[in-house]
């Protein structure tokens, strides 16, 4: 018995059938989205910088903090300086200050008389201030001010000797830029000379010597001020 093999449709027929399926599928709405209609991935903010703060118009940002150069003081406090009219200043309480002694040489109580400098005298202007002849007389307070201050200072230090030989002394002297009327720079200094008949004493010699050194450029002003305020006896031994 001879079998009859099924006949295959021509290739053209198969192509036409495939196209019919595609057309039918499109008619049913099952379409492949085009590239332009596909959803795109959301892009995040990524790396951002810190927000900036806006400033009002006309303002500027300083590039650096302002700096000032403080005057050289040698560690001493700064007094009020030269006054056009001095007034009597209050002194430490009676009996609150105590002398120190280096042999026969008196030293002030540092808690009462640590020394104070005149802010109007600096290293830059010594030629027209302390090194100018007669300058100290232009800044010295009058006796109407210093006399009552001297009495009150004597009470503070418990001084009972004669006032004729005790000096109301500027610890940092005027000729080294000491403050003229700050209580921190004034004390009743007993005379250390056994034959004393006046207020002139050994510290006065040192004051003249230090002024010479400063005005000649051999010693700077702040060093001289600190030396005589800290211990004038030691300074005298060092500077002659």
Please supply descriptive tags for the structure shown above.
single chain; 240 residues; alpha+beta; two-stranded parallel sheet; two-stranded antiparallel sheet; 5 helices; 8% strand; globular
What would your notes on this structure say?
With 240 residues, the protein is an alpha+beta fold. The chain has a domain at 77-239. The protein is 27% helix and 8% strand. It is built from 5 helices and 6 strands. The protein has helices spanning 11-27, 143-157, 202-215, 221-230, 232-239, and strands spanning 77-78, 100-102, 105-107, 116-117, 167-170, 186-189. A two-stranded parallel sheet has the order 1-4. The protein has a two-stranded antiparallel ribbon with strand order 2-3. Helix 3 crosses helix 5 (232-239) and helix 4 (221-230) crosses helix 5 (232-239). The N and C termini lie far apart (153 Å).
Given the C-alpha coordinates, what overall shape results? globular
N- to C-terminal distance: 153 Å
- Rg measurement, Å: 48 Å
Query: SSE order in H/E notation?
Result: HEEEEHEEHHH
Quaternary state of the chains: single chain
Structural class: alpha+beta
Order of strands across the main sheet: 1-4
Runs with pLDDT <50, length 5+? 10-71
Task: Give the amount of beta strand, in percent.
Answer: 5-15%
How would you characterize the largest beta sheet? 2 strands, parallel
- State the helix count: 5
The overall pLDDT average reads 79
Question: Short description, anyone?
Answer:
The protein has helices at residues 11-27, 143-157, 202-215, 221-230, 232-239; strands at residues 77-78, 100-102, 105-107, 116-117, 167-170, 186-189.
């Amino acid at each position: 018995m001879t079998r009859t093999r099924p006949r295959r449709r021509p290739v053209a027929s198969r192509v036409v059938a495939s196209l019919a399926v595609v057309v039918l599928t499109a008619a049913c709405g099952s379409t492949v989205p085009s590239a332009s209609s596909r959803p795109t991935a959301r892009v995040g903010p990524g790396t951002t910088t810190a927000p900036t703060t806006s400033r009002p118009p006309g303002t500027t940002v300083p590039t650096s903090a302002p700096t000032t150069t403080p005057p050289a003081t040698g560690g001493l406090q700064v007094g009020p300086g030269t006054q056009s009219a001095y007034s009597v200043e209050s002194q430490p309480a009676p009996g609150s200050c105590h002398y120190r002694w280096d042999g026969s040489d008196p030293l002030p109580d540092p808690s009462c008389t640590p020394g104070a400098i005149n802010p109007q005298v600096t290293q830059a202007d010594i030629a027209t201030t302390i090194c100018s002849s007669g300058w100290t007389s232009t800044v010295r307070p009058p006796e109407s001010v210093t006399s009552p201050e001297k009495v009150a200072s004597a009470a503070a230090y418990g001084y009972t000797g004669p006032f004729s030989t005790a000096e109301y002394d500027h610890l940092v002297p005027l000729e080294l830029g000491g403050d003229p009327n700050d209580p921190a720079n004034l004390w009743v200094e007993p005379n250390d000379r056994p034959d004393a008949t006046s207020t002139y004493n050994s510290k006065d010699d040192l004051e003249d010597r230090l002024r010479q050194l400063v005005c000649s450029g051999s010693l700077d002003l702040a060093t001289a001020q600190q030396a005589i305020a800290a211990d004038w006896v030691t300074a005298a031994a060092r500077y002659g």
